[in-house]
Write a structure and sequence with these properties.
27% helix, single chain, six-stranded parallel sheet, alpha/beta, seven-stranded mixed sheet, 11 helices, 2 domains, Rossmann fold
Length: 341
């Protein structure tokens, strides 16, 4: 049996197409998941445009934000049943003996390989996933919302675990993409005052940020950042996916403040980092997520306290993947979702 899949087949711009692939055979500790919906991530777009900075095992099926039902169980899998509603974490391959894995931070295992670049992802009908990656999702959480658990986990891990925000903090988020807006939404849940900053072409996405109670700013955010006491924002979250925005973050952050970099930026910096020294600023990276983050986020989604509905710009069938990619790439929608046939 073969299924259509969105495949990134070479390290070249535009090297993505629909191909027929065989149905995966789950290993003894894996399950075969029938994909209900899969979100399009900025990393999928970066691989499509060949603007990424991570190694890819070509050819590879794209997609790591997915939810569905278990279709088959591996011979050694226990605790799960065919038909269970689940989402899957992204760390498809990890080294259990790695020191990071041993302390539960397997997301930071340097040998980690994820869906959509290291192994085949979920932009197809079936995907094989290790049973250790699975989380149950309650009936009240629709699949089209549950498939966005992964980007919500990126935001939660960044804001809660790495930025350590406090109620009343003044936070500037650079970049109104999926991760930027979700970081802003989580920061609001933490009790922070939040401004989301974008360009003129981002106005439609900035309106989505306003639905989460954020200030939307095009151009300079200096006035907003310094409005309280003239010193700047307590935290600047750089989610823009470009190296140059780190310079803006250093200008906006207050002395002894915090810069959280969650967006990738492969370009050389080309500017001095001396303001970090002068201001005594902490620069913190944030990557991926782990088990407890997923459990917290699923609870927030199921309760409605974290609502992803505003960021969903549309649902496209697999055959129209190109339209879904283009809409996101042009900034017309925050998040595209694909429904495999």
């Amino acid at each position: 049996m073969k299924s259509a899949a969105v495949v990134n087949f070479a390290p070249e711009e535009g090297a993505v197409e629909i191909r027929e692939i065989p149905k995966p055979e789950p290993g003894p500790n894996d399950v075969l998941l029938e994909v209900a919906y899969v979100g399009v991530c900025g990393s999928d777009l970066h691989q499509w445009t060949n603007g990424h900075s991570w190694p890819v095992n070509y050819p590879v099926v794209l997609g790591h934000e997915f939810a569905g039902r278990i279709a088959e169980l591996g011979a050694a899998v226990t605790g799960w049943q065919v038909g269970d509603r689940v989402v899957s974490e992204t760390a498809a391959i990890i080294d259990p003996s790695n020191p990071m894995s041993k302390i539960g931070l397997y997301n930071l295992d340097p040998t980690r390989k994820g869906f959509g670049y290291g192994v085949n992802g979920a932009m197809t009908r079936y995907v094989s996933t290790p049973a250790r990656c699975l989380h149950r999702i309650p009936e009240q959480l629709p699949f089209e919302h549950a498939c966005l658990t992964e980007p919500c986990c990126v935001a939660y891990n960044a804001v809660v675990n790495n930025a350590r925000l406090r109620p009343g903090d003044r936070v500037v988020v650079l970049g109104p993409g999926t991760i930027g807006i979700l970081c802003a939404a989580v920061a609001r849940l933490c009790g922070a005052d939040v401004a989301v900053v974008g360009l003129e072409g981002d106005r439609s996405r900035l309106k989505i940020a306003e639905q989460y109670g954020c200030e939307a700013i095009t151009g300079s955010a200096a006035e907003w950042a310094r409005a309280q006491d003239g010193l700047g924002a307590d935290c600047v979250i750089d989610a823009a996916g470009a190296s140059a925005t780190l310079k803006i973050a250093m200008e906006l952050v207050r002395p002894n403040g915090h810069i959280l970099k969650v967006g990738w930026g492969p370009q050389p910096l080309g500017f001095s980092l001396d303001p970090l020294v002068q201001k005594n600023v902490t620069l913190q990276g944030s990557f991926s997520h782990n088990w407890p983050v997923w459990e917290r986020v699923i609870a927030l989604l199921a309760s409605g306290r974290l609502d992803v509905k505003p960021i969903i710009g549309g649902i496209w069938p697999l055959a129209q993947w190109h339209d879904a990619f283009e809409k996101m790439h042009r900034g017309e929608v925050v998040k595209s979702i694909i429904k495999p046939e």
